[in-house]
Amino acid sequence: MALSEQRTRRIIVCDTDKCNGCQICEFICSVVKEKTTNHKKSRIRAVRIEPFFNIAVACRKCEKPTCERACPRDAIHVQADGSIKIDKDNCNGCGWCIESCEFGALRLHLDGKVAFTCDFCTEFEEPQCVKYCPKGALKYTTIDQAARESVKDVLMDLIEVRES
Amino acid sequence: MRGYAGKYLRVGLSSKTVSEERLEEGMAADYIGGLGFGARTLLDMVPKGVDPLSSENVLAWWTGPFAGTIVPTGSKFGVFALSPLTRIFGFGICSGGFGNELKSAGWDGAVITGRSEKPVYLFIDDGSAVLMDASGLWGKTTWDTEELIREELGDGAVRVAAIGPAGEKLGNLANITTDRNRQVGRSGMGAVAGSKNLKAVAVRGTRDVEVANLDELTKMALDLNERCQGPKTEKYRVYGTPANILVHNRLGCLPSYNFQRGTFEKAEEVSGERMLKTHVKKILACTGCPVACDHVNEVKEGPYAGTVASVDYESLAQLGPLCGVSDLSAVTKAVEVCDKLGVDTISAGVTIAWAMECYEKGLLSKDDTDGLDLRFGNGDAVVEAARRMSLKEGKLGSFLSEGVRKASEKLGRGSAKFAIHCKGMEWAAYSMRSLQTSTVGFCTSIRGADYLRSGSYQVDVAGKVDRLKLDGSRGKIVSDGENQYSIIDSLILCKFTRGVYSSMDEVAKLYTLATGIEMTGPQLLKAGERIYNAAKCFNVRFGMTRKDDYPPPRAFEETMADEVVKGTKITREEFDEALDGYYESRGWNKDGIPTKAKLIELGLTKEAEEVGA
C-alpha cells in the first residue's frame, strides 16, 4: 500500500531546541511576501511559551484540511502539493478557517481583511524563512525525514557522551 | 522620513494628555536616535535644580532608525531621565521585542512628563495612546505585570515594559524590565517611572515600517546575519558573556570580595563553561537578533530548585565572586529575585559586597543587618539581601536600597573608601587596578562607572597596552571608543555585533539604506562626538567637574595581592596624566569642561553659552 500523501509532503519543520524566538523568519517572510518589514504580516509565526519553549509555526499541509471544509464561500483550494490557496475574491474575512485550524497557521491579513497562509515560496527553491533561519532551526522536509534526523541527533549526542 | 517613524508621543501624566509631535529631519541626522535623542530631550527639558523623583523630571523612551526593520539587533530602545542614583544623565538601553513593537506602532519614542495621581500604565495601540488604571498591578512583580496586562488587553502579543515593587518604592537601583529577561538597567530609571506612578508601558504595533531601499537593506542584513554566526560573536553564542569569568580570572582582573582582589579561588565553579553544563537550560534571542546570547538558567535541585533566570557575566560576577559566592544556584536565585522585583543586578551586587566588607570589618553589626549573616561567600545571605533591598524591607533593606554611595555616606566610619562607584554608579565587573585603561573609561563615562560607554577595557584585556600602567595616550583610546559607542547606542545596535561590521562606513551605508539620509562613516563619528558632548553638557549643568572623574580610594591606596598582578595599584600622577590626555583629545579644558569652541564646532551653540568654558 502506498504511503499516505501527507507523509510525502514537505512542510516547514521547526527544531524547538534550536529555535530561540528571534523572529527573523517573520521578518524575512514579510519582506519576501509583502515587500515591507512588518512581522505581523508574516506567514510563519514565532511563538514563545515562557520561559523556555520556542517554536515557529506555518501551514502543515493537512491531508483533510479543516480550513477548506470550514470555508463557507469556497475560497480555500487545496493544491496538488497540499498547500492552501486562498481566493481573495471569494474570501470575505469571516475567519472560520482561522478558527478551524488547529495550528493557528492561518491569519487575517491586516490590510485586505482576507485570510492568508504560507505558500512555501514556490517561486524559490525553498521557503525563504528556512533558507535564512540563522540557527538552522527550520527545515523544509517530510515528517518522516524529520523523525529520522531527530533520531540521528539523539544518537550523535549519545556517541559524544560515550566518547567523552 | 524612512526608517524613522517621523513622530513621537508626548504624554502628560499630571494633565492626562497625549499628543503627537513631529520628529524633525535635522534632529534625526544630527542625533541619529536612541542615546542621541535622549541627550537632546534631557538637555531641552530638564533644567538645573530638578529633583529626579519629582514630577518635573521626564522619562523619555526612544528607539533608533533600525527598530522594526530587518537590520540585525536593530530593535533596541533606550529610556532616559535625570538619574536618582547619580543625579546626572541617566539611562538604560534594552532589547527584547519592545522597540520593534513601538516602531511598528508608528512611533520613534514617547516623552513622558508629570506625575499621575493614581497608578497607571500607558497603552500605545498603533496610532492611539491611553492611560489605563494600574491600581490592581501595583505591588506585582515585573513578570506578573507583563502577563496580567496581556490578559487584560486580551492580546498575548502585546509587549510590556514594567517596573517591579522596587520601582514603586522609589529604590535608587530600580530598573524597568521587558520580556522577563531584558532590563533597562543601571541608574534607576525604574524609580523615575515609580515616582510618576507609571507601572508600565504596553505596546501593540501592526504597521509597516518603511525603509528607503528595502532590497539593498535586506541583502546587507542577511549578509550580516551570516557574519553573526562567525568567530566575532562566538563567545556570546556559545557560553554567553559568562565566558569572561575564566579569562578575567587568569588576567587577575575578575573583581572578588568587593574589589579587594582580582582573582577568585573558586572561579572554576562559577565559570561560563561550568554554567553551560549545569545550569543553562535554553539560549534565547531578542527580536531580530541572529546572535542569541541570552543564557537562561534553570536550577534543577537543592533549596533553589525551580528558579529560572537569565544570567550574564555582570550579574554572575557581581552577585557571585564579588560577594565571594561560588554557588551558581544561589547566584541564579539572586538574579531572579532582582529581575522579578525590578532591581539592577550589577548595582545590587556591588552594594551587597560593600555591606559584606563592612560586616566583616565590624562596621555593620548583626543588629544593623536585622540578623542576616553577611559574611563573604554566604550565597543565601546575598539572595536575602537582594530581596530586602528590592522591597526596602527592614533596616538593612532600606539602607542598601539607595545604592553604595548613599549607604556609605550614611554609615561613614571610613566605609566610603571601599564603596566602589564613580559618580554614584556602582562599578561593573572589571577590576579597577588591573585594567587601568578601563578605569579611565569608567571615570569619564557620562553615566558614572560604566563599561558600556567606551569599551575601553578591550585594549587592556587584549594586551594592546600595558594594562597595569597609565599614560596620556589612553585618553584618546577612551574618547574614540566613546564616540563609536555613542553611535552604536543611538542607532541602536547591539554591541555584541560590533565586530562583524567591517568599518564605520559600512554602518553608515546601512543607515542610508534604511533612512534615505546620506551619511558617511566620519559623519557618523562626528555625530557620536556631538552626542557624547551633549550628554556631558547635561552633566556639567548638574555640577560635574574634573573632581568627579576619579575612581574610589581603593584604586590608589591599596596594592593588589593576587599573584598575577601582585603589587599593582593606580598612581595618582599617572591617572591625572590619562585624564589630561582624555580632556585634551576631547577639546575640553583641564577641569573637564567642554570648551565653547568645541561645542560650537559640534553645533551645540546653546550649550556653549550655558556651560562651555
Would you kindly provide a written description of the structure presented here, covering whatever features stand out?
The complex is a heterodimer of chains A (164) and B (613). Chain A is an alpha+beta fold. Chain A folds into 2 domains: 96 residues, Alpha-Beta Plaits (2-Layer Sandwich), CATH 3.30.70.20; 57 residues, Alpha-Beta Plaits. In chain A, a hairpin with a 6-residue loop joins strand 6 and strand 7. The longest helix of chain A has 21 residues. The radius of gyration of chain B is 22 Å and the shape is globular. Chain B folds into 3 domains: 198 residues, Aldehyde Ferredoxin Oxidoreductase,  A, domain 1 (4-Layer Sandwich), CATH 3.60.9.10; 188 residues, Aldehyde Ferredoxin Oxidoreductase Protein, subunit A, domain 2 (Orthogonal Bundle); 156 residues, Orthogonal Bundle (Aldehyde Ferredoxin Oxidoreductase Protein, subunit A, domain 3). In chain B, a hairpin with a 3-residue loop joins strand 10 and strand 11. In chain B, 65% of the residues are buried.
Report the radius of gyration of chain A as a whole number of Å. Answer: 17 Å
Give the second-level CATH assignment, the architecture of the largest domain in chain B.
4-Layer Sandwich
| Share of residues in helices of chain A | 25-40%
Provide the residue-averaged pLDDT of chain A.
94
* Biggest sheet details of chain A: 2 strands, antiparallel
| Major protein interface | A-B, 24 and 38 residues
Largest sheet features of chain B: 6 strands, mixed
How is the largest sheet of chain B built, in terms of strand order? Answer: 2-1-6-3-4-5
| Overall SS class of chain A | alpha+beta
Q: What count of helical segments of chain A does DSSP give?
A: 6
Oligomer: heterodimer
Query: Structurally, how many domains make up the residues of chain B?
Result: 3
